[in-house]
Specification:
The complex is a heterodimer of chains A (191) and B (176). Chain A has 191 residues and is mainly α. Chain A has 9 helices and no strands. Helices cover 71% and strands 0% of the residues of chain A. Chain A is globular. Chain B is 67% helix and 0% strand. The model of chain B is unreliable at 165-176 (pLDDT under 50). Chain B is an all-alpha fold and 176 residues long. Classes of the chains: A mainly alpha (191), B mainly alpha (176). Chains A and B meet through helix 2, helix 3, helix 6, helix 7 and helix 9 of A and helix 1, helix 3 and helix 4 of B.
């Protein structure tokens, strides 16, 4: 049954007070919301708190959801802003959540891609570790675009960016991820 | 002419305009290294796409739903009322409690010798009462019933808080 019910049908049912519809929305998106929160706050306990808070906020404001964007986009936007508020509250002195000041360091010569050489299990672990080393914003943009397959338009909505900024941020995040993969993992693999 | 890595990424990500895309494709026809780079990019994209998601704690969804139900109860969106059937059972329980408590209080404070308002309350002879098998079993049954009611109420409350996501009509908000 759950496979055939669309998000908009579940939202309609939820708005009539059907708790099972809320529960299905939670089950459908708990991993996405948790992963996104975890990529941002970098701590499992905090990510649970953020993801739960985001779901509660989303449900409270569900009557305001107009369906102009996909429910997932709307939910990720809430997860992103909840994560942002959480980090700002936890670290009031924080200046920036991206790595704009950190130069992108890549090897001079082109080298084979680390991810392409590693076996699947190591590769997955390697990518997860590398993403964990990215800044919150870089990790978020990589997760949204490459893992969740959100479009640049959707990323602009979620992270409140202009199209140019989103594209630049994605490009830089990708370069930094590649840099981390090269510097941290490729030496091990080639040894 | 060498092609830039970022250009290839933009090509792979679908960010290029039609003329740019055609230009990159023409270049790829002639440049073996560029084709190898593109293959790596595609492999990395696929690897990123297939990276497993983080797993939240077990029962995380249930915890969210319990928090959501609590939130609704706190904001009055769900009424937390007791249905009529429960009121009847509660009144029966109260009568049974009185049946037990009044004689017990009478026994403890020895109402026979303390009578400030002059109302005569019958003396209770517990030895005689408990020697009556019918009454003894009635008392035991009463205790059992009250214990059952207590456990049942707790269980219904727990079910309401945790399993309410699966109720089809939450607005009823009943324990039953």
């Amino acid at each position: 049954m759950s496979a055939t019910i669309s998000d908009s049908q579940l939202i309609e049912q939820a708005l009539t007070g059907r708790q099972s519809a809320y529960a299905m929305l939670v089950r459908r998106y708990e991993h996405y919301a948790f992963t996104l929160a975890f990529r941002f706050v970098k701590n499992r306990e905090d990510a649970h708190e953020v993801a739960q808070d985001a779901f509660l906020r989303a449900f409270r404001y569900l009557p305001d959801f107009r369906g102009e964007a996909k429910f997932s986009t709307w939910l990720y936007k809430i997860v992103y802003s909840t994560s942002l508020n959480f980090l700002r509250k936890k670290h009031p002195d924080i200046q920036s959540l991206d790595d704009a000041d950190r130069p992108v360091q890549l090897r001079d010569a082109w080298v084979p891609d680390a991810a392409a050489i590693m076996d699947i299990k190591d590769r997955n672990i390697g990518i997860q570790q590398a993403i964990a080393l990215l800044s919150p914003d870089d990790a978020t943009v990589i997760t949204l675009f490459y893992m969740y397959e959100n479009s640049l338009d959707e990323i602009c909505t979620i992270m409140d960016l202009t199209m140019t900024n989103a594209k630049t941020k994605l490009c830089r995040a990708r370069q930094r991820l590649k840099g981390i993969m090269e510097n941290k993992f490729l030496d091990q693999i080639l040894d | 002419m060498k092609i830039e890595l970022d250009k290839l990424w933009d090509y792979a990500d679908g960010f290029l305009s039609e003329p740019e895309r055609q230009s990159v494709e023409a270049h790829l026809q002639q440049d073996v290294q560029a084709r190898q780079m593109l293959e790596d990019i595609m492999a990395e994209k696929q690897a990123l796409n297939q990276t497993p998601m983080e797993k939240p704690k077990p029962m995380f969804a249930d915890k969210i739903m319990a928090a959501w139900v609590s939130d609704q109860v706190a904001r009055g969106s769900i009424t937390y009322s007791v249905p009529p059937r429960d009121w009847v059972l509660t009144i029966i329980s109260l009568v049974l409690v009185l049946f037990l408590v009044v004689p017990l209080v009478a026994l403890i404070i020895n109402v026979g010798s303390f009578d400030p308002v002059g109302v005569e309350i019958p003396q209770i002879d517990w030895a005689t009462m408990l020697s009556n098998a019918l009454l003894k079993y009635a008392l035991l049954l009463t205790f059992a019933f009250m214990t059952f009611r207590l456990v049942d109420r707790y269980w219904q409350y727990r079910k309401f808080m945790i399993a309410s996501p699966y109720l089809s009509k939450p607005s009823a908000g009943h324990f039953s």
